[in-house]
Amino acid sequence: MADPFMTPELVFIANSMKHVLKLLSLLVVISALWIGLLQASIIPQSHTWLLPIYFIVSLGCYGLLMVGVGLMRFPTCPQEALLLQQDIAEAKDFLKQKGVDVGSD
Hints:
By secondary structure, the chain is mainly alpha-helical. It has four helices and no strands. It has helices at residues 8-40, 45-48, 51-72, 78-97. It holds the Pfam family DPM3.
């Protein structure tokens, strides 16, 4: 049964908070691993201090990869293009009736 008090705004806020909690938990796990590597001396101290920089660079590369994949998979919608052209033609006709010069076409 749906909660009558859950408005779309509250649902958005609840979903946003879930993402924030996921990110915070990921940050805590990564920080714990980093501190653990510093304490255990498994990796030489000189390399361990660079791990946050490596992580930030890796995160940036991942972000660029996701943007590239999103651009490659960007859907084309011929039906929506036709509807948009019809809307533009209707708007031009409406503006012409009001006496606005909309250019040649």
